[in-house]
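4.2 Preliminary Data

To establish feasibility before requesting continued support, the project team ran the inverse folding procedure on a target of 182 residues. The structure was first converted into the token representation described in Section 3, and no sequence information of any kind was made available to the design step. The complete token record follows.
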């Protein structure tokens, strides 16, 4: 059974990577150009008839941000373009000097937005925001924080920003960032 699953899974990943690369190569100067999504995990399952690939265990996904989780589902269109990435379980997202944590995150690739639910929190330097639902718009560098059913939003904004030195990406691997504390 495992051998039967490996070939379709590898083909699905190859098609996903080639399509992403082809888009970037075709329009290198446009904002629509996307980098390929690179995913590592303990296991992978491809369900071709549902246009779905599921990664489980120590998942690390890299596009122009790094996403770490226990499970990751990638849904793709009929043309094999990545439509949506859904992460669940111990979700951590790193982009520039921002770190987001939640129980679940859904990345809409066309709209370039990530919706965090399940105790979501976003930190930038020493500032923190919390709510019941946080939507991060990647291209605008904006976020909307919502309370649910009378819930409140909480923001802690420090008077002095204590940002760490810019990370040296070569010194810190993406996997190492994922293994750090939540």
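Position-by-position output of the design step:
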């Amino acid at each position: 059974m495992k051998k039967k699953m490996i070939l379709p899974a590898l083909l699905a990943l190859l098609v996903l990577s080639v399509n992403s690369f082809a888009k970037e190569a075709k329009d290198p100067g446009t904002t629509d150009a996307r980098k390929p999504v690179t995913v590592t995990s303990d296991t992978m399952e491809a369900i071709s008839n549902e246009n779905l690939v599921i990664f489980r265990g120590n998942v690390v996904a890299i596009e122009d941000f790094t996403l770490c989780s226990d499970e990751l589902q990638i849904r793709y269109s009929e043309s094999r373009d990545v439509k949506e990435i859904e992460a669940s379980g111990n979700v951590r997202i790193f982009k520039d000097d921002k770190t987001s944590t939640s129980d679940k995150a859904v990345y809409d690739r066309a709209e370039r937005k990530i919706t965090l639910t399940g105790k979501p929190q976003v930190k930038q330097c020493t500032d923190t925001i919390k709510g019941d639902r946080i939507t991060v718009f990647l291209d605008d560098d904006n976020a909307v924080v919502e309370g649910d059913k009378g819930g409140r939003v909480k923001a802690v904004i420090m008077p002095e920003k204590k940002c760490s030195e810019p990370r040296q990406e070569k010194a810190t691997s993406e996997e190492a960032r994922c293994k750090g504390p939540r």
